[in-house]
Design goal:
With 436 residues, the protein is α/β, with parallel strands linked by helices. It has two domains: 2-218, Carbamate kinase (3-Layer(aba) Sandwich); 296-435, 2-Layer Sandwich (VC0802-like). It is 39% helix and 21% strand. The chain has helices at residues 14-23, 40-52, 56-77, 81-100, 108-132, 156-168, 198-208, 242-250, 261-266, 320-330, 355-362, 390-397, 424-435, and strands at residues 2-6, 30-34, 138-140, 175-179, 182-184, 190-192, 213-218, 239-241, 271-275, 284-287, 295-310, 338-340, 344-349, 367-381, 405-408, 414-420. The strands form three sheets. An eight-stranded mixed β-sheet has the order 3-4-2-1-7-9-10-8, with helices on both faces. Strands 12-13-11-14-16-15 form a six-stranded antiparallel β-sheet. The chain is globular. The structure holds aspartic acid and magnesium ion (MG). The site of aspartic acid has 12 residues, from loops. Aspartic acid binds at residues 7-8, 35-36, 41, 118, 180-181, 195-198.
């Protein structure tokens, strides 16, 4: 059984929603995961912020605005009056719920209920549309089986246990529709898998049902081998290993939610990235195997801050790095790149919320230097020890660019360099023309 996920733009207009049936084959047993209509989750975030700030008038204006969009949406989605009425009921229910929150004490619990309405709306409207055109389908409530634990980590075994009986209830049905992004947390409250989380839902369901394949349908033809906005002549990568995809999804390639690689990898479920606008294009296949000894892709991540701690105490000492890392841990700030010498260590972060506190605490160890506006450029491929010459080719391509850090050997799949953001475009172009 396959899992197909369609993103916000793929359901972004009534026309696009109707076109999903060009891709979905209703005769094949499958689970279809839908995102919210594009823009909706952003609007819901604003509504929640207005409520949190106690600005009820603003919240109600935002709700009215969004409701108008949906009223227009269903006018175009449905043809028959009785289905239009059913669509209206769906909208009234969800927008009524949003408005009624004005009468309640507003906490993050209510905020998450708001965020869940986008996917509930898109899936229910699509389900009613399928009824109108006579395509049988089943609406599976994601809140009945998508689950996270105390640490916010999805619990695949729970999902497997709860989704199987739901599917078994409908042995003769083929098409199952469900919500991306939303779940219940360990308290049973409505929660979500964070922004962009519908990909993650698809991969988690894929793992839970041991799916034969997960398909992520977006509006580009797969993961490209460089940033198409910056470099001319980029190409979709036809095949990536899970490790390569994880590196790329994290570094800039916005097409796939980075965490969604791991459930698929654990249960060896192939993931295909495909283009709704060009359904016959091959896209990108992510699977356990890979084409060895090849440079696959170049990606970049901006807004990086480099921190160098210089300390003679580091010389021949043990425990020094642990103390440095503990500072970042205390401020829940992830480190991306690390390089060390005998008397200094450099790390990069992208979340600078606590940079002031971190710097103050690091100053106890030695002198601290901060460089802002840095970019990590990451070259992904198979750099296992049997292959050789790739690092030299990468460095040769950027020999005219000042490098702040180089990281190689952390995994066999990437070489990362840190450059000034001002040098990013030249770095990407030069690597592209020399490596591909
Ligand atoms: N609707 C959610 C978001 O906009 C989840 C998703 O689209 O993947 O973040
Ligand atoms: Mg997305």
């Amino acid at each position: 059984m396959k899992v197909l996920k369609f993103g916000g733009t793929s359901v972004g207009s009534p026309e696009r929603m109707k076109k999903l049936l060009d891709i979905i084959n209703p005769a094949e047993r499958q689970i279809v995961v839908l995102s919210a209509v594009s823009g909706t989750t952003n609007n819901l975030v604003e509504i929640g912020q207005a409520y949190l700030a106690g600005e009820k008038v603003k919240a109600s204006a935002l709700i009215a605005n969004l409701k108008t969009k949906y009223e227009k949406f269903i006018q175009e989605l449905f043809a028959k009056p009785e289905y239009l009425d059913a669509g209206k009921e769906v909208i009234d229910y969800h927008f009524g719920l949003l408005s009624n929150l004005a009468n309640e004490e507003f906490t993050t619990i209510e905020d998450k209920i708001i965020l869940a309405q986008g996917e509930l709306l898109s899936t229910t409207l699509y389900y009613v549309y399928l009824q109108e055109i006579g395509v049988p389908s089943v609406l599976l409530p994601a809140l009945d089986f998508m689950k996270t634990d105390e640490d916010g980590e999805p619990v695949i075994d729970y999902m497997a246990e709860h989704i199987a009986p739901l599917l078994d209830q409908y042995p003769d049905n083929k098409l199952f529709i469900t919500q991306g992004y939303i779940c219940r947390n360990s308290f049973g409250e409505i929660d979500n898998l964070r922004r962009g989380g519908s990909d993650y839902t698809a991969s988690l369901i894929g793992a839970a049902i041991r799916s034969e394949e997960v398909q992520i349908w977006t509006d580009i033809d797969g993961m490209h081998n460089n940033d198409p906005r910056i470099v001319k002549g980029t190409k979709p990568i036809s095949h990536l290993s899970f490790d390569e995809a994880a590196e790329l999804a994290y570094f800039g390639a916005k097409i796939l939610h980075p965490q969604s690689v791991f459930p698929a990898q654990k249960y060896k479920i192939p993931v295909r990235l495909l283009n709704t606008m060009e359904p016959s294009a091959p896209g990108t296949l992510i699977s356990a195997s890979s084409d060895r000894s090849e440079i696959k892709s170049i990606a970049a991540k901006d807004n990086i801050t480099a921190i160098k701690i210089h300390s003679s105490r580091m010389l021949l000492a043990y425990g020094f790095l642990r103390r440095v890392f503990e500072v970042f841990e205390r401020y829940k700030t992830p480190i991306d790149m690390i390089t060390t010498s005998e008397v200094a260590v450099s790390v990069t972060i992208d979340d600078t919320t606590f940079l002031g506190d971190i710097t103050r605490e690091l100053n106890v160890f030695g002198s601290v230097e901060i460089d802002v506006n840095q970019t990590i450029v990451c070259v992904v491929g198979d750099f296992s020890s049997e292959t050789h010459g790739y690092a030299a080719r990468v460095l040769e391509a950027v020999k005219h660019i000042p490098l702040r850090m180089i990281s190689y050997g952390g995994s066999s799949y990437n070489i990362s360099i840190l450059v000034k953001t001002a040098d990013k475009v030249e770095t990407l172009r030069s690597l592209h023309s020399r490596l591909f």
